[in-house]
Amino acid sequence: MNYAPYMTPDGDWAGNFYADTPIPQGMVKAPDGGRYGMRWAGKDWASDPDSEDRVDTFIRGPDAVLLAERAAMSCTRWQMIVAMGEANWAKITQYADSPDAPWAMRIIISNAVDVPRLSETVDALAWVLGMAPGEVDTLFRAATAMKA
């Protein structure tokens, strides 16, 4: 599943759209007449009544730019591991091995292929590491700049 931010006619971030096909880079115009229940269908918007993607309020100003950047941030597991460094990765694996870690979290830590910045898993792992949101952004910027 691919995803990217979309914007209002005023150019403000309005949410994310999801697609099974490749999607345009950057932000695109939000669908006319609605802010939820829509999916990108390759060339245009399509109705998706089962979509859980819903945006009830628009976000404006500098926060909109940061949220749009975060929505587009994603890296591979190896990029994340290398960017966070050996000491932080050791903390994550120690957490995964502890009885405090939920079973699903252990599976995600050991098997994730892609790591999207706005996932709940990233928020949980940032909490384990004691990282602020800005530090997580910096980590993702470093991770996405890495090449194998």
Tags for this entry?
18% strand, alpha+beta, globular, 148 residues, 3-stranded mixed sheet, two-stranded antiparallel sheet
Question: Could you characterize what this model shows?
Answer:
It is built from five helices and seven strands; from the N terminus they run βββββαβααβαα. The strands form three sheets. Strands 2-1-3 form a three-stranded mixed sheet, with helices on one face. A hairpin with a 4-residue loop joins strand 4 (38-40) and strand 5. By secondary structure, it is of the alpha+beta class. The chain is globular and about 50 Å long. The protein has two domains: 2-72, no CATH class; 74-145. The model is unreliable at 23-29 and 52-60 (pLDDT under 50).
**Coarse morphology:** globular
> What structural class results from the helix and strand content?
alpha+beta
List segments where confidence is low: pLDDT < 50 over at least 5 consecutive residues: 23-29, 52-60
> Helicity level, as a percent range?
40-55%
- The helix tally amounts to 5
| Beta-strand content | 15-25%
User: How would you state the average pLDDT, rounded?
Assistant: 75
Structural Rg: 17 Å
Distance between the termini: 23 Å
What number of structural domains do the residues give?
A: 2
